[in-house]
Design a protein that fits this description.
Length: 273
């Protein structure tokens, strides 16, 4: 780690399990901040918003402006922050439980209105902090503390949902491919509009998917990014409940549309004149 990354450390004791893949996301984020600073984005202009969960503890370990919201509520909090100060780069870090269960409506509406924030979902496919209950992305048959006999529900694919909700930047990353993830996050932060990265993040204590992912994940070619049809094809390459396919990571969809903040300000100016 270089000196600039060290400056992003805090004195908080890290309580993640040793070897947790959240460390990969933390390292990637630090690298993102260092890269953005080199390009003239001051770290004071970056805000990380989290909820509750192992994933959300990341703000304790980053010497950046941050806001800790309720479980399932970081997206709407981030939207408020962005609206209050459109010059900020606002990044949400939250778990799949908080985002795809409790806070699902906020995800859909932020994508729909194309608010200019970046959402990073640490998708370990379980409620990890509360010791491994099933979430919307746990596979059918998932055995955890709330489903000891195995979940009978089929998971849904969050990328499909964000694409269908008019999200303008839809991507998947892997917590163990740190440099690839760093580059994805930089592109997401620079994207003008709603950017979403579902980060596959093995929870080594309650759902260890590391070797499953290591055998299947590959970096996809980023082409025809403005085609929803092509995006859907890529997204559906891996069905969450099927174990026999490869898993593409990278950007699947990226288009430019007016952001919510710009449209709103335009409307307000018109009203005044
Ligand atoms: C509204 C609400 N529901 C439930 C909880 C209890 N709770 C706190 S953390 C947590 C699990 C978090 O899981 P996830 O969002 O997937 O994040 P992870 O810990 O896996 O990173 C739950 C259920 C809460 N604090 N608030
Ligand atoms: S419970 Fe899982 S997600 Fe939470 S710190 Fe431990 S390994 Fe990481």
């Amino acid at each position: 780690m270089d000196n600039k990354q060290n400056k992003l450390d805090t004195c908080a004791e890290n309580t993640w399990c040793p070897g947790c893949s959240n460390f990969g996301i933390l390292t990637a984020l630090k690298k993102v901040v260092v890269s953005l600073e080199k390009e003239g984005v001051k770290k004071e202009k970056i805000v990380v918003v989290s909820g509750i969960g192992c994933s959300s503890k990341i703000i304790d370990y980053l010497n950046l402006n941050s806001f800790s919201s309720l479980h399932g509520r970081p997206i709407i909090s981030a939207e408020g922050i962005k609206l209050g100060n459109p010059n900020l780069k606002v990044i949400v870090c939250a778990g799949d439980g908080g985002t795809y269960n409790e806070g699902i409506s906020h995800l859909i509406h932020a994508a729909k209105r194309n608010t200019d924030i970046t959402v990073l979902v640490h998708n370990n496919r379980t409620f990890a902090l509360t010791t491994g209950q099933f979430t919307a992305t746990s596979p059918e048959g998932f055995k955890g503390s709330s489903t000891p006999q195995g979940s009978v529900e089929e998971p849904f694919n969050p990328l499909k949902l964000v694409l269908a909700s008019n999200g303008t930047f839809v991507a998947r990353g892997y917590a163990m491919r740190i440099d690839h993830l760093k580059n994805l996050i930089i592109k997401a932060v620079k994207h003008s509009g709603f950017s979403f990265i579902d980060i596959l993040q093995p929870c080594i204590s309650f759902f260890n998917t590391t070797s499953f992912y290591n055998q299947r994940i590959y970096e996809t070619e980023e082409k025809n990014l403005d085609s929803p049809k092509e995006a859907l094809k890529k997204i559906e390459e891996w069905q969450y409940n099927k174990n026999n396919s490869k898993i593409p990571i990278g950007i699947f969809y990226k288009v430019q549309k007016p952001t919510f903040e710009k449209e709103l300000l335009k409307g307000l100016r018109k009203k005044r004149s």
